[in-house]
């Protein structure tokens, strides 16, 4: 088995799994649907191409919370001037602006691992992360990474846990003594998240997976990891 590591670091990240209409949430860690979407963008896979998306969705995902970030809310509006009319979702005309509350994580950094038996597809993804086909966003198109998602030594022939445990810390300064890890649960224990894609992103159907999070000692301390 092999594991592909991704560095998700930026001033703004948003990984919503329950967003509806004008309320846009974010989880405390990258969602699997969001990470696979980012990988698909790097590889130039169309959101409706289920045949190419499915092998990526079968990968097992783990997250190391190198810097959890701070939850913030962005105030956004959509609307029109007094002389204009907008059409609401139900088709009725309206002259009122719409307020949309959009939550995000400020200054967060995560090390994400994707494990699979098909090394070839992980190699393709690794190469494409270095020179992505489309712009990569951290949960939203406008949330650009502060550091490259690509890691030169990000493809390794070890298990997901071993890869996340052994890779240098992404932060700067003194590394913490313990760090939070999240892994997919094989037995249905832990918390349920609805971010397992059941179809192409064009159809937007998601099922459940279970995730176990645990604080563990960090094994390696390195101040900075270049791309």
Sequence-ordered SSE layout with sheet pairings:
Layout: E1 2-13, E2 23-24, H1 32-43, H2 50-57, E3 60-67, E4 70-78, E5 86-87, E6 93-94, E7 98-116, H3 119-130, E8 155-156, H4 160-166, E9 178-184, E10 191-197, E11 206-217
Parallel strand pairs: 2-7
Antiparallel strand pairs: 1-7, 1-8, 3-7, 3-9, 4-7, 5-6, 9-11, 10-11
Structural class of the helix and strand makeup?
A: alpha+beta
The level of helicity is 10-25%
**Alpha plus pi helix count:** 4
Question: Which oligomeric state applies?
Answer: single chain
What does this structure look like?
By secondary structure, this protein is α+β, with helices and mostly antiparallel strands. The chain is built from four helices and eleven strands; from the N terminus they run E-E-H-H-E-E-E-E-E-H-E-H-E-E-E. 33% of the residues are buried. Strands 1, 2, 3, 4, 7, 8, 9, 10 and 11 form a nine-stranded mixed sheet that branches. The chain is globular and about 60 Å long.
Features:
single chain, 227 residues, alpha+beta, 4 helices, 17% helix
């Amino acid at each position: 088995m092999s594991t592909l590591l991704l560095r998700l670091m930026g001033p703004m990240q948003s990984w919503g799994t329950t967003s509806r209409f004008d309320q846009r949430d974010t989880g405390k860690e990258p969602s699997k649907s969001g990470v696979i979407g980012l990988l698909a963008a790097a590889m130039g896979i169309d959101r409706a191409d289920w045949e190419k998306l499915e092998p990526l969705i079968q990968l097992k995902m783990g997250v190391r919370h190198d810097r959890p970030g701070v939850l913030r809310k962005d105030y956004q509006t959509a609307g029109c001037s007094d002389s204009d009319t907008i059409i609401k979702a139900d088709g009725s005309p309206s002259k009122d602006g719409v307020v949309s509350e959009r939550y995000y994580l400020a200054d967060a950094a995560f090390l994400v691992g994707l494990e699979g038996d098909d090394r070839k597809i992980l190699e393709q993804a690794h190469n494409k992360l270095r020179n992505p086909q489309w712009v990569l966003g951290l949960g939203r198109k406008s949330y650009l990474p502060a550091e490259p998602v690509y890691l030169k030594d990000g493809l390794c022939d070890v298990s997901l846990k071993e890869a996340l445990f052994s890779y240098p810390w992404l932060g700067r300064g003194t590394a913490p003594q313990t760090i939070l890890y999240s892994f997919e649960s094989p037995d249905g224990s832990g918390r349920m998240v609805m971010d397992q894609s059941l179809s192409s992103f064009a159809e937007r159907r998601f099922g459940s997976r279970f995730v176990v999070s645990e604080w563990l000692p960090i094994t390696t301390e390195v101040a900075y990891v270049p791309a």
